[in-house]
Amino acid sequence: MSEREIAQMFLTLASPSHFVQQLGFEPDSWQMDLMGSETPRIIIACGRQVGKSTVTGLKAYRKAKMSPGSLTLLISNSYRQSLLLFSKIEDAVRADPDKTLIEKMNLQELRLTNGSRIIAAPGKGETVRGFSGVDLLVIDEAAYVPDALYSAVSPMVAASGGQVILLSSPAGKTGFFWNIWDKGKDWERYKVRADECPRIPQTFLDDEKATIPDHVYRREYEAEFTEGLNSLVSYEDLKASMENDVKSIGDWSLDPADNRDRLPKVEALSG
What we know:
The chain is of the alpha/beta class. The protein folds into 2 domains: 26-231, 3-Layer(aba) Sandwich (Rossmann fold); 233-271, no CATH class. The chain contains 11 helices and 10 strands. Strands 3-4-5-2-6-7-1-8 form an 8-stranded mixed β-sheet, sandwiched between helices. It has a two-stranded antiparallel ribbon with strand order 9-10. Helix 3 runs parallel beside helix 4 (52-66) and helix 4 crosses helix 5. The longest helix has 17 residues, at 79-95. The chain is globular and about 80 Å long.
């Protein structure tokens, strides 16, 4: 076999489609796009149970196998959540017919004989600051990760030029996850609704929609960045007020005197 034929065979084996087929995974179209994406910055806003953790785990495992000496770091708001994401790596290893590269695997770390590592780290800035030269940084449930933690880990890919993947269901229009989604430059965006996932029955979604508050349903299953019931002013109205010379925000006047009749009455307490 010629060097060209060997090189072509390696490229075929290394392709994302062949990789997931070898593991018996049948990806949705967006999952296949994510598997093959080399964009340095990726953000995924998605509904619950659409397969974000599974495909990210597969991507991380493929990175370790195909990039000798690489370091992948999995982080979430809690160590438990980081370990849950790492369990998707374990599933991929078990499904892999070729385990020749596996050197060591425990509940939080995978080491390969090619020098690559995947580590699930606690979601604490003081704990993860020691890592550097990260080739793939995955932040799960990123909408619930404090801004300070993101600031602590994002420099880890500065020197390595590594890839960053943020994945989460939305948690309101606040924090770094929302800011990146709203106006982050050079980020590849994926928005995946639960009704776009063929594994989630529509009857289940109909029951959920009839049971839980509308803003919760839209956030958890339609991947929308919604305000809660306690928000007096929407994000869009507030943003417009800062960009234009306006006298009101939504239904609320900027003159407090004009809002007196609209505020709740408080009865005086008598002793």
